[in-house]
Write a structure and sequence with these properties.
The chain is an all-alpha fold and about 290 residues long.
């Protein structure tokens, strides 16, 4: 089992940043005030099944507040879903949780008929569930289709984890909001809204926020944009190229060719190609018939 790393000091800092009392956190999670206090002073460790809910209450991504070393096994996926093993029987239509227990302990693999329901309950793809099951049996199996993070929360979490390793201090939600607003020259996002992005409660943001986040983390704005938006921008860039080849455009204007426009780097590339086409004697706007 690849347990998440739990540091009571980080829990306390996150709670203070969120402006919450221990009693408020305990109430949100259905635990006592003393339980939260014990987590923060390191006397006790929160159940693995509570970590994602705790991170959400504190306005943090679970992968940032409680990072995991290695890939999850079957028990890790269940815990991340906030489900205790004893409660898995009804999820797969059985009276007992024994099938899940045996699979988690590497004794017997799940009956294939249980896989779709369990994957849905855990909020993962079926192939990810099966890969995690193999890890429970001691096999070093990579995550299927593992690549760049796709959701906005995961993208930010990825940057926070990889840009600030070890003892390096990652920016707080307030510092991220401040950086974005300084870039925009206006108050375009609040600390609360940044916490929403980190926790996944808010899944999209304005284009200016993407650009501000890119400035804060030192990456390209396109990294934060939804895949469909990136595809649309690529389409617009290609459409400008097609117009250039037909001699219907001499330079791409700042707003691009669609309602969402084209990124500056794409515009620069298009303009370079337009100039190259003209240098080679291919048609340019206004040249038809000459």
């Amino acid at each position: 089992m690849s347990q998440r790393l739990v540091d009571g000091r980080r829990i306390k800092v996150a709670r203070i940043e969120a402006g919450l009392l221990q009693s408020q956190v305990g109430q949100a999670l259905g635990v006592s005030d003393s339980a939260e206090a014990n987590w923060e002073n390191g006397k006790k460790r929160p159940d693995a099944e509570v970590l994602r809910a705790l991170a959400k209450v504190l306005g943090k991504s679970v992968d940032v507040l409680f990072p995991r070393e290695g890939l999850p096994d079957l028990a890790d996926l269940r815990a991340d879903a906030g489900i205790y093993q004893k409660d898995t029987g009804p999820l797969i239509g059985t009276k007992s949780h024994a099938p899940v227990s045996r699979a988690e302990r590497g004794i017997r693999r799940l009956d294939p008929k249980y896989v779709p329901a369990l994957a849905a309950a855990y909020g993962v793809r079926e192939d990810s569930l099966l890969a995690a099951q193999e890890r429970s049996f001691g096999r070093d199996v990579p995550e299927p289709g593992q690549g760049e993070p796709t959701s906005l929360a995961d993208k930010i979490a990825f940057l926070l984890e990889h840009l600030y390793p070890g003892d390096q201090v990652a920016p707080t939600a307030g510092e991220i909001a401040q950086g974005v607003n300084e870039y925009a020259g206006a108050a375009v996002i609040s600390e609360t809204e940044v916490k929403g992005l980190l926790s996944g409660a808010q899944t999209t943001a304005k284009p200016i926020v993407y650009h501000g986040l890119a400035q804060v983390f030192g990456v390209e704005p396109m990294y934060f944009e939804p895949q469909h938006a990136v595809a649309r921008q690529i389409y617009e860039g290609l459409r400008l190229l097609a117009l250039a080849r037909e001699g219907k455009v001499t330079r791409a204007v700042a707003n691009g060719a669609g309602e969402e426009g084209v990124p500056a780097e794409v515009l620069a590339f298009v303009n370079e190609v337009v100039v190259e086409l003209q240098d080679r004697g291919l048609p340019a706007a206004g040249d038809e018939g000459h």
